[in-house]
Amino acid sequence: MINRLEMKGISRSFEDGGVQRMILCDLELQVRAGEFVAVMGPSGSGKSTFLSIAGALLAPTGGSIAVDGKPIVGLDQTGLADLRLRKLGFIFQGSNLIPYLKVAEQLELVAKLAGVKGREADERTEDLLGRLGMQHRREAYPEKLSGGERQRVAIARALMNDPAVILADEPTASLDGLRGLAVVEMIAREVRTQGKSAVMVTHDERVLPACDRVLWLENGRLVAR
Questions:
Q1: Which of 81, 89, 105, 198 is the right S-S partner for 101, CB 3.0 to 4.6 Å?
Q2: Residue environment code for 52-87, b if the CB has 16+ CB neighbours within 10 A, otherwise e
Q3: Which CATH number is 211's domain given?
Q4: Which of 200, 133, 129, 120 is nearest to 167 (CA)?
Q5: Pfam families attached here (predicted)?
């Protein structure tokens, strides 16, 4: 089974009052195709830093990262932007939908940015909305959707360009228990049926049964308990 995401020897430090503070230290992570990994840890443990580095939004101080077998450390800004668009799908704590775009238009915009147009984009949009039970809401604006519906659209948008890796940052934070679990189960189903990898940072222990592995970020490293 191939690894869609590999992080080896990752470190990240920054200067705080003239002192170098280490946030991540020799962090290791491999996520196989079809695997859904949850990462937990207290506030200030470095979870946001970890996810930003995994998503090519922040460069590590040291170590190497590969997405779908392609090393990403050292890519220029154009290369990183292309990688984020084509290989990574992001799901945030808030759905971050564009308020003046209808549901279908949210997905079509992502396709347009990647140069996918016409029938291919239309078919991909309809397929994703159908799989996530949102086809009947394709003409609705975000303000007309429930919290769970907005997160389902966010999942569809993250999947629009068929990414290798999905990165989710507290996707259930604004949802109640049942809706939160439903959203995470949808992510898990897409990961397993489509052969993707996913990493979710969360504090919500109620959704952990939907994940294949749970890791804790402690002293700058990911550990299993």
A1: 105
A2: bbbbbeeebeebebbbbeeebeebeeeebeebbebb
A3: 3.40.50.300
A4: 200
A5: ABC_tran
